[in-house]
Amino acid sequence: MNISFSGKVALVAGGTGGLGRAVSLAFLEEGARVLVTYRREEEYTALQSAAGPHAAALEGHRVDITEELTVAAFVSDALAQHGRLDAVVNTIGGYAGGIKLWELETRVLDAMLLLNLRSGFTLARAVLPLLLKQGYGSIVNVAAKAAVDHAAGASAYAASKAAAVALMDSLAGDTRGTGVRVNSILPSIIDTPANRQAMPNADFASWPKPEEIAQVILFLCSDAAKTIHGAALPVYGNR
């Protein structure tokens, strides 16, 4: 299947992180102009280097996606410069686990809701007026297997990811018939350096790779997936 984003514009929130980097590079490989948001300058510099000959099609913006006014200004500027937005991917998230609910501090719950729920809400709210006006576009929000598989010790994380899936599912209902598609993906543990460091004794071979998940996201954002709307797609791997 030939998936091309030549002439199209993709926004990848958290586009320099473990998964976001792979998604950004995959869009660049397929010809997209890619706008990434980031928090750490060194991560964006590393992404520029990894992009190689495609770096000219990469734009970095230091934006906190959980801050509503900042995101609105960023999207407005992007529209003024590019005039369109074809794909919006939210890879921002955080994890907290190994804590029984009665030992969980409220600040941890708040942090999980901010990173895993509010990020998707704020980003979608900012881009939807543009997507609805142009009558096309795809939103993909990265949730997690924990949204449907609620393990012990991960109450705040699981609740925030489940809420993120519900948010996107409802949004898919709101946008039905508009030409704008909304989907979620549910990865299991992703094979990133941070996860390997956190779980050094795990079987890394069983974890899906960022590059593999990036291909699923590109498919969902492409015209080849025009019949997929309101899905929460498992990306668990089969090893």
Report on the architecture of this protein.
With 239 residues, the chain is α/β, with parallel strands linked by helices. It has a single domain, classed as NAD(P)-binding Rossmann-like Domain (Rossmann fold), CATH 3.40.50. It is 44% helix and 16% strand. The protein contains 7 helices and 7 strands. The chain has helices spanning 18-29, 41-51, 68-82, 106-134, 155-174, 193-198, 210-221; strands at 9-13, 33-38, 58-62, 87-90, 137-142, 180-187, 232-235. A 7-stranded parallel beta sheet has the order 3-2-1-4-5-6-7, sandwiched between helices. Helix 1 links the parallel strand 1 and strand 2 (33-38). The longest helix has 29 residues, at 106-134. It is globular, with a radius of gyration of 17 Å. The model has no long low-confidence stretch (mean pLDDT 94).
Distance, first to last CA: 24 Å
Q: What would you report as the Rg, rounded to the nearest angstrom?
A: 17 Å
- Element-by-element helix/strand order: EHEHEHEHEHEHHE
The portion of residues forming beta strands comes to 15-25%
Structural class: alpha/beta
Second-tier CATH architecture:
3-Layer(aba) Sandwich
The number of helical elements comes to: 7
Task: Indicate the topology.
Blueprint lengths: L8 E5 L4 H12 L3 E6 L2 H11 L6 E5 L5 H15 L4 E4 L15 H29 L2 E6 L12 H20 L5 E8 L5 H6 L11 H12 L10 E4 L4
Parallel strand pairs: 1-2, 1-4, 2-3, 4-5, 5-6, 6-7
Helix pairs in contact: 1-7, 3-4, 4-5
What descriptive keywords fit this protein?
alpha/beta, Rossmann fold, seven-stranded parallel β-sheet, 7 helices, 44% helix
